[in-house]
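Batch manifest line 360
LIGAND: pyridoxal-5'-phosphate
JOB: complex structure
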Amino acid sequence: MPIEFGERIRRIPAYPLAAGYDLGEEVAMLASNESCFEPHPDAIAAAHEALSGVNRYPDPAYQPLRTALADRYGIPFARVVLGNGSCDILLCAGEALLEPGAEVVYAWPSFSVYPHLAAASGARAVEVPLDSEERHDLDAMAAEITVATRLVLVCNPNNPTSTSLGLDEVEAFLARVPRHCAVILDEAYCEFALALGDPYASVALLRRHPNLMLLRTFSKAYGLAGLRVGYGLCGSEELRAAIDQVRQPFYLNVPAQAAAVAALAHQDEVERRVAHTVAARVAITDGLRELGLWVADSDANFVWTHLPDPEVEAEIVAGLRERGVLVRAGTALGRPGALRVTVGTDAENRRFLGAMGELV
Ligand SMILES: Cc1ncc(COP(=O)(O)O)c(C=O)c1O
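JOB STATUS: finished
ARTIFACT:
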């Protein structure tokens, strides 16, 4: 007789996992929006040093990293929430805010984890199509907010389409969201976003919107994806407390926290890497446009392109793989007939463009 699992197990969509981690170093891993740069040497050293103390649990208040983030962004310590990657915070927010009868509104296609939140809680997912330029349609999203809406997710820049919203657009949208409804502005890629200005710009919104959380990560610009460290900057202490209430006490490991504190202290290096990534994304965008493809205006560390015909998607992804380049097929991300490619090293980007030239 089969094991009887909870009903939500049948509802929760499987996350589209990237393949290729077993293929060795020769393969250009351009499928998961990671950083192609190794962590800063001080972050590696800090993680190493912290290992000798792991006979102890982490400090349950996670003082060092929360203090470093509170100081950097000028918000109270009690409004900084941490997580085992920002995904962890998203899932906890779903658990804290959603239940059967509630609604969660987000754009689609957007980050693949969002559908999980409604499925896990029994809430209703309201997916609002992106506009013709693959950007959030904030008017359409605002129109979907009802008394039942508990959570709105805005992904800026949007994964997988790379497009971003200006701060003025975000602010005008927030003014239309009722206070009973929490908003998570998912800024996993904010360090790469020229439209946002800089990672400080949206922090000012927290002063005016207690229902807002800026969700961020050390997985992208800081190059610590494998250590799993995410954080949220909250407009109110209640939001942080609700998230901490639904989860286990020790969610972030000691070496990861130490590495994140060290990485945060090297903003000069973050800026250098971001500048390199932004220049490379322009080169990839131009290269694809020269091949006659439609390419979204990227504000992230990846590029999103439409293929001339949805039928060729699988063929192109397979052709790239044969040439040692892994990218994400649009079908897995909610838009058949598209590709998402992460900015890699200069050599990897050249290999990708060369292969696309052969395949398109
Ligand atoms: C938009 C967005 N949000 C959140 C995440 C989660 O990142 P992490 O859990 O590594 O912090 C990702 C990862 O790709 C993402 O693209």
